[in-house]
Amino acid sequence: MKKLLIVDDEPNIVMSLEYAFQKQGYQVFIARDGSEAMVIMKREHPDLVVLDIMMPQVDGYETIKQIKSDSAFAKAKVIFLSAKSRPEDIEKGLALGADSYFTKPFSVKKLIAEVNQLISI
Amino acid sequence: MPNYAIILVIIGYLMLLFGIGIWADHKSGSRWVHNPWVYALSLAVYCSAWTYYGSVGIAATSGVSFLTTYLGPVIALPLWIVVLKRIVVLSKQYQVSSIADFISLRYGNDRSIGAVVTIICVVAVFPYIALQLKAVSETFDILSSGADNNFALTDSTFYIAILLAIFAALFGTKTTDASQGRSGLMFTVAVESVLKLMFFLIIGIYATFYLFDGTTDIYNQISALDGFETLATFENMEASVNWYFMIALSFFAIFLLPRQFQVSVVENTSTAYLKKASWVFPLYLLLFNVFVIFIAWAGKLVLSSDVNPDYYTLYLPLEHGHKLLGLMVFLGGLSSVISMVVVSALALSTMVSNNLIIPYGFLKVLNKSNPESNANAIKNIRRIAIFILIIGAYFFYINFNIELSLFSIGLIAFVIIAQLAPAFFIGLFWNRGSATAAKMGILAGSIITFYTLALPFITDVFIEGSSFTTAGPNGIELLKPYALFGLDFMPPVTHAFFWSMVFNVMFYLIFSVLRKGNYRERNYAEMVVNASSIGELEENAFVWRGEAYKSEIEKVLIRFLGEKNTARALKIFYRKYDIDPHQEEADARLVNFSEKILTGSIGAASAKLMIGQVVKEQPVSLPEVLKVLEENKETISANKQLQQQSYDLKRVTERLKEANLALIEKDQQKDEFLDTVAHELKTPTASIRAASEVLADADDMPPELVQKFLNNIVNDADRLTILISNILDLEKLSSGREIMDKKEYLLKNTLDKAIDGIYQLALKKGVNIEVGEVSNLTLIYDEDRILQVFTNLLSNSIKFVPEETGTIKIDAKLKTDHIIMTFEDNGKGVPKEDMQYIFEKFYQSNNQNIKKPIGSGMGLAISRHIIESHDGSITIDPEFEKGARFILTLKTAGL
Q: Exposure winner among B80, B81, B339, B635, fewest CB in 10 A?
């Protein structure tokens, strides 16, 4: 069973994603910000991380830097899921090593399709 | 006396004058030729045949009014010397060669005004020359007592005219530079002045002491005659007025008559000579008039009444058989004619060539040919002009057989010449006078002169029984030429002089005030009017902007001066101003210098045109430049003020810079806020969307989970609504469109409502709310809005205080005209660096990536706007460190 980590401080969104991905057969973990996320990363080594950017304490940029700098997480895919939608935001996100970038509001179906595609390779 | 004898004497006399002229030219450097006496005596060219013969005639018929012509210059002497000195200095500086040149110089070397002046002068002087020839002819006839023969070839006057023309051409056109002195000619004029005065005094003494026993004897005899009183006194007011005008007229003439300008200005070699002239010339005029009245009386007593009184001086000795004395008188008259005709013709020829022919058309021819033929062409124009003027005047006299007396023609000439007076005199002292105005004035004055003097004369002579003079044109009385607008007590000449001057001056002033001259005109006006101060400035620093090349200017100079003279002139110029001769760009000084040295040869207007062809000028007016210089002076004294201003300016600049930075920051904050707003709007939207999608695709979802998702959707929709209304609220408040519904309220009631509103929230988090002394405070405010502020502050505090131990304290204190409320909590507080921003519209944390629990970031901004709408204030206490403490002031009602 593939492991998926959702990092977002917005409980309602997290709830929807948790339900949708569990239904797809993923083992879903939840973190409310970057520091929580890193704890789960080290413990569970998820295959993919859905990462929000604007969060209290440690934000999404800091989190992906930590993930990418640790070779233990080399295989982990990262999808940014953020309300920041300017082209330079997207560029910055991809430049930091994200595999994909979704802007809020987003289509749950498309996100599921993207996750499936990234992990099945 | 036989004709041939007289002719021989005349030829002999002329030869003598030629000889003297040639001798003086050879000795042109010596003190014999150049001295103040020669200058002073040459001024006596003023005394023409009109004086020599006409004064006696007028004294015999009209009494003492002949004196005006000579008293004018004497009375106005101090003014004359002062003004003349100025004109001489200016004329030397600008190589002025005639009165036309001078006036055109004053009006910016205006070509057309030079031409107008020339035409006026020719019109005035041409009949005047004819008059002189008439005097020669008539006296010749009296002397020879032979048959009158008007056929030119047998009339001796014709030959005399030709001799005069040759004389003038020979001595007057030796050099092309018309502004250069003609010492030979001037010396002969001076000699002639001595001779004519001497001869006139001799005949006066002869008449008074030989024919009678002195002045008393003549007086006793003449006073016995009928009607004597009218001859010796001014019988009434009209005559006195007349007298004043005649004096003014002759004063103008002494400046403006071309021959007078020629001898007094153009031929002047040193301003020091003016000192001697200032007493010699008036003395000369007085001496000339001493015996006039006695000769006139003697003539009246001795000669029959049909004898022309103009020639009493000649008839008196002839009547007594003193033929040699008669011949001497004739030669005296001839002397006055020669000087007048020669100098007038010379002056006019220079004007005609320099101000009429060369600038209008002939300039093109000159431009192309070589220097030698240019010089010859100019000389030839002048020679031909001299011949045409003198011979033409002769035929004028023969064919028109002038009916008027010597005196009247002289006066008419004066009136015409006087038309130049406003342009000349006012222009000397008033820099505003413009070329257009000068031309309009001259034109208006000339038309009046023509209408009041020439036209009635023509109609009276040529139209039999015309009623033009007696009844006016078409019987309009007001337009009667001798009594224009009902002015009927003046004699025609005075009348014409009066009205023409009135119109001339009026037009000159009106047009000068109405239309300013162009920059060039103003420059020259300034130079003439402020001659003394600008004298040195002119060539050195005359401000001029333009483009010119030395070689181009040099080419023009060579064309007129020849290669040698040009090279010499430029060498002097370069040495004088220490300029590198190889410099190709010409500056203002070279342009001015070149114009000046060309002016002598071809006149100011033409020189300007010639140089203008190779110079591209851009307008800078001298008065403007002077103004700048003047301001510079003031600047030095106002330095302190300037420093202060510069300091002030610096401060303003700094403030502007700060303001600009603040603006830029505000702009950035706005952008950031919009991003935040977008983010805040997108988050609940994303949440609603995700939940809806999940619900749509979940047939097997348990009902309680479905309910949970649906609740989430409702909550997010509420969040969105609040967010949107906050944004709109803030927008309304900050733009001032929101009108506060202010009424009197008890503060405690409002505060209680606010606490009620958040009570559940506080209870849930276990927050304790303490309210201090608030009771009985009544204020005027919009309760809904103040409630909003309180709620915002309270819910903020609830968000930040710790659970269970959180405390909020509210207090209110009454001051003189306001209350101070405090809201303090034991939460985490606001970072010091953020304190100044929290009330700003669009404020969110600088670190956008971190979502702040403060929410929309608009609550405090909205609160601030509301409080300010109530003339109050809201601040955060920077000293309070245990949490956050907001301080709120509100005006009390009617206390």
A: B635
